[in-house]
């Protein structure tokens, strides 16, 4: 999270994208409601990531379908990070 232009990573960082996850218990109907909410939130989050990275929603959906790891330079290229810090920002 962060404002564009102020999204930083450290040189040894790992950036991790993945599906939304959560847990549910109780009656089957309640579990179904919880699952629908997780799916709704997942689509919302994917849209936000797409908007702020410039990546297509299809690419974000593909990349978050399973664990997806990026090093700091890859995160810059992807649009998740603006700068890899080697010294404190001015």
Automatic annotation (TrEMBL):
SUPFAM superfamilies named among the record's database cross-references: ClpP/crotonase
Record flagged with keyword Cytoplasm: yes
Record-level GO cellular component terms: endopeptidase Clp complex
UniProt-listed GO biological process terms: protein quality control for misfolded or incompletely synthesized proteins
Entry keyword annotation includes Cell membrane: no
CDD domains to which the protein is assigned, alphabetical: S14_ClpP_2
Family: Belongs to the peptidase S14 family.
Protein name: ATP-dependent Clp protease proteolytic subunit
């Amino acid at each position: 999270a962060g404002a564009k232009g102020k999204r930083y990573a450290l040189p040894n960082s790992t950036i991790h994208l993945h599906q939304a996850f959560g847990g549910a218990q109780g009656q089957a109907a309640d579990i179904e409601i919880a699952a629908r909410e997780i799916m709704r939130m997942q689509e919302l989050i994917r849209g936000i990531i797409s908007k702020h990275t410039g990546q297509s929603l299809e690419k974000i959906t593909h990349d978050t379908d399973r664990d997806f790891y990026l090093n700091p330079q890859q995160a810059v290229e992807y649009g998740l990070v603006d700068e890899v810090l080697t010294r404190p920002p001015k």
